[in-house]
Amino acid sequence: MPPAIRLKDHQRDKRLIRQRLLAATVFILLLTAVLVARMYFLQVVQYEHHSTLAENNRIHVQSLPPTRGLVYDRNGVVLAENRPSFSLTLTRERAGDWRQVLDTLMEVLELDSEEKDTYIKRIEQGRRPFEPVPVLFELSEAQIARVAVNQYRLPGVEVEAQMVRYYPFGEQFAHTVGYVGRINEDDLKRLDPVEYSGTHHTGRLGVERFYEKQLHGKVGYEEVETNARGRVLRVLNRVEPQSGQDVYLSLDIRLQQAAKKALDGRRGAVVALDPKTGEVLAMVSEPSYDPNPFVTGIGFKAYAELRDSIDQPLYNRVLRGLYPPGSTIKPMVVLAGLDAGVITPESTVFDPGFYQLPNNSHKYRNWNRGGDGWVGLELAVARSNDTYFYDLAHKLGVDRLHEYMTLFGFGRRVALDMFEESAGLMPSREWKRQRYRQAWYPGETLILGIGQGYMQSTPLQLAQATALVASRGKWIRPHLARSVGGEPVTDPEPLPDIQLSNPEYWEYARKAMEAVVHGARGTARKIGQDAPYRIAGKSGTAQVVAIKQGERYNRDKVQERHRDHALFIAYAPAEAPEIAVAVMVENGESGSGVAAPVARAVLDAWLLPPELEGPPELETDDMQADRQEAALAELPESREQHQ
C-alpha cells in the first residue's frame, strides 16, 4: 500500500519564516547598534585623540637647534666660531628603504665604499622620529648640484645649511679650547633628548666640554604643514631658539704664541698664571694637533696617525702629564721646614758632596760631586744643593712633607674649570702601604725632599705652587674662563689660604728664588743678566731612568727619550708679581739651560712693551709655516743632575 502523503502546513511554515525574519532583524539591529556605538566612541569620545593623529599626518614639529656660543681670548680674538656649511641629511621615515637610498647616494656622489659602514652607523643612531640625520658635511658645489639633479632618486635626502664649529688657530688652542664632536650613542643616554633635539654636536674636550651647558643654548621649534611626501608646505608656528652664551677666556693669544715659539718644536709644556687672579694667561702643550677634523668626523687613518704617534700630540701635558718635579719644589720644602720649626733662616749644613743617614753607609749624592761646603738657606736654593735638602727632608719626615706639599696643591686637582686635570701623586706612608704593601723607608723621604721618587706632578700644579709663593699663600684656583655670558667666573668652593706661623718666612723663600736668577752662584743666572726686571725662579731636572749608585750621568749613553726632563718655575716682577710660569721640556736635561730661557721668553712677552719684546704676529692655522724640531740647547757647565 503506498505511503500516506503529508499535507503542507502553511501556518507552520509561516510561523517559521516570521521567526527567521525576526531573528535576522534583531541581529541586524544589534550590528547597527554596535556600529553606531563604535562610531560614537571614535568620533565623540575619542575625537581629540584621533583628530590629533590625523593632524599629525599633516603637521609636524621640527626642532630648531640653537647657535653655539663663541669662545674668545681675553682681547676679544675669536678662538672658536661657527661657519656656515652645507650638510647632507637623511630622514629615515621619509626615505622608505633607506639602505637602497644610501647606495644610490654613494653612487651619485661617488663616495668611497669603505666609508659605507660609517654612514650606516650615523643613520642608525637612535634619534627622534622624522629628525634628519647628517650623513655628510661641508658639501662642495658639485656635490650639491649632483644631489639636486638626482633628487627624484633620493627620497628623504636633503641639503641643509648648518653652522659648523671652526677653530681658526688650529693646533694652538687644541688643548685649552678643546673641540666639539658628533653626538654618539653614549651621549644620547646622558644628554637631554629635548634640549639636544636637532643638535648633532657636543663638547668633547677643554672649554668646549666644561662649559657645554652655557655654550649650547636653548632649543627652539616650529610647527610645519607637510604634504603626503613629507615636503614642508608652510610654517604654522615658530619659537626661536636661544643662542648659547659666549665665553671669554683669560688666555692671551700673543702670549700663547710666544710660549709656543719659545718651545721651538720640542716636546713639553708651558703654563702661565696671574698670581693675583688665578687666570691662566697661556697654556701650551707640544706637540699639538688640529681639532677641526674632529668636528665633522676624523677619518680612521688620520686618527690612527695621531693616536699612535710616538710624540703623543693628543696628550695634554699641562693637565695630564705626570713628571717628578725635581728641584722646583725646594722653595716649598724650605717654607715647610721654617714653618715646622726644624730649621731657621740661619741654619747651615756642611756639604761634602753627599749625605748619609745615621748608621747607614749609603751615600745620597749632591749634583755637585765636589760639594759646596757650608750651605745656608739662600745658597741651598740658589745652588740647588741636594745635601741641604736631604737633611731638611730627614728632619721634616714624610708625614710633614706630605702635609705641607698638599697645601701647595701637589697630589690634588687645583683647577676650577679643567675637567681633564690629573691629581698627580704626593706619596705618603698610607699610600705606599696600600699600593705596595710595604713600609715607608727613610731613604725615600730624602729623595722626596728633592722632588724625586714616587712624587709626580703636572705643569699646572707647579705653576700654581709658584703662584702661591708669589702671592704669599693666597689660594685662587687656576681657571681658563674669564667670563661666561658676560658674568665673571667665581669659585663656588674657594680653598683656604696657606697660613704660616710667621709671615716673614715667605720673604726668605722669595729672596732665595731671586738668588737663583740674580745671585752670583744661581743656577739660572744667565737668564737674569740682561733682564730689565727682577725674576724669582727655580730650576730642576727630573730623572726618567734611574742611575746606579756611584755612576755618573752620561748623555751619550742614554737614549734621547730616556734623558732627564728639564723644568723651570718663575714669577716676575719679583717685588710685585704679575705672572707665574712653569716650563717642562721633555728630555731637555737642563732646567737652567733649556727650560729657563723658555720661561724668560714668556715673561718678556707679558711684561715688556711690544717694541722691546717683539711678539710674534697673530698667526692662524692657515698662516703657520712648517717648523723643524730644533736641537737641544748646549748644556751649561753647572747643569743640575740629581741622583
Report on this model:
- The strands form six sheets. Strands 2, 3, 4, 5, 10, 17 and 18 form a seven-stranded mixed beta sheet that branches.
- The protein has 22 helices and 21 strands.
- It is an alpha+beta fold.
- Helix 10 runs antiparallel to helix 21 (591-607).
- It folds into two domains: 60-124 and 133-249, Penicillin-binding protein 2a (Domain 2) (Alpha-Beta Complex), CATH 3.90.1310.10; 253-303 and 317-623, DD-peptidase/beta-lactamase superfamily (Beta-lactamase).
- Helix content is 35%, strand content 17%.
- A hairpin with a 5-residue loop joins strand 2 (71-72) and strand 3.
- Mean pLDDT is 86; it is low at 612-643.
How do the strands and helices of this protein lay out in sequence?
Blueprint: H1 10-45, H2 47-56, E1 59-64, E2 71-72, E3 78-90, H3 92-95, H4 98-109, H5 116-124, E4 133-136, H6 141-149, E5 157-166, E6 180-182, H7 185-190, E7 201-203, H8 206-210, H9 212-216, E8 220-226, E9 232-239, E10 247-249, H10 253-263, E11 268-273, E12 280-286, H11 292-296, H12 300-307, H13 317-320, H14 330-340, E13 348-351, E14 354-355, E15 364-365, E16 373-376, H15 377-383, H16 386-407, H17 429-436, H18 442-449, H19 459-470, E17 481-484, E18 487-488, H20 505-518, E19 536-542, E20 565-572, E21 579-585, H21 591-607, H22 610-613
Parallel strand pairs: 2-10
Antiparallel strand pairs: 1-8, 2-3, 3-4, 3-5, 6-7, 8-9, 10-17, 11-12, 11-21, 13-16, 14-15, 17-18, 19-20, 20-21
